[in-house]
Design a protein that fits this description.
Oligomer: single chain
Helix content: 10-25%
Shape: globular
Strand content: 35-45%
Structural class: mainly beta
Protein name: IPExxxVDY family protein
Number of strands: 11
Largest sheet: 11 strands, mixed
Order of helices and strands: EEEEEEHHEEEEHE
């Protein structure tokens, strides 16, 4: 795993065992890279994930948008909207700081979380976090999308 990455978004999803049992989207499920902006499911290497929440980060790793997926589609909250809704701001931890890859490449860490990496899908630039605790009980997953910083140095 290259160490020069930047986390650009985080997905909370139903896991790959539960997702295929539900029909959450009107459209046929697309791959992660071919899906459209408001699609609520995607596949990665044949594994299906239904999106529950999507967090988008700015270049400094601060939250810039929060998408909460509902039956009618995602509700999109900007940081300005989150600041006006303090209970939601706290619930989604909108003040969290960005994640970094640990030196050994086995963890994603920030000031409050240490998340063990299960698998990295290099082609899609996705990091799949190990399923543990409440995530496992609720049949959920956390995935992070990253970009290579070296491509911005040109």
């Amino acid at each position: 795993m290259p160490s020069d990455i930047r986390i650009i978004s985080q997905y909370h999803t139903l896991d790959e065992k539960v997702s295929p049992k539900y029909v959450n989207c009107a459209r046929e499920i697309q791959t992660f890279r071919t899906r459209e902006m408001y699609d609520c499911s995607f596949t990665i290497e044949g594994l299906e994930f239904d999106i529950l929440q999507h967090f988008l980060f700015d270049y400094k790793g601060n939250l810039k948008e929060f998408w909460d997926y509902k039956a009618e589609g995602p509700l999109v909250y900007t940081m300005e909207a989150l600041k006006k809704d303090l209970p939601l701001f706290k619930q989604v931890r909108a003040d969290r700081k960005g994640y970094q890859l640990s030196e050994d490449g086995l963890l994603l860490v920030n000031l409050t979380d240490t998340l063990p990496i299960e698998k990295i899908f290099r082609k899609q630039q996705i990091i799949l976090i190990q399923q543990f605790g409440e995530l496992k009980k609720r049949d959920q997953r956390i995935l992070f999308e990253y970009e290579l910083l070296s491509k911005h140095l040109d």
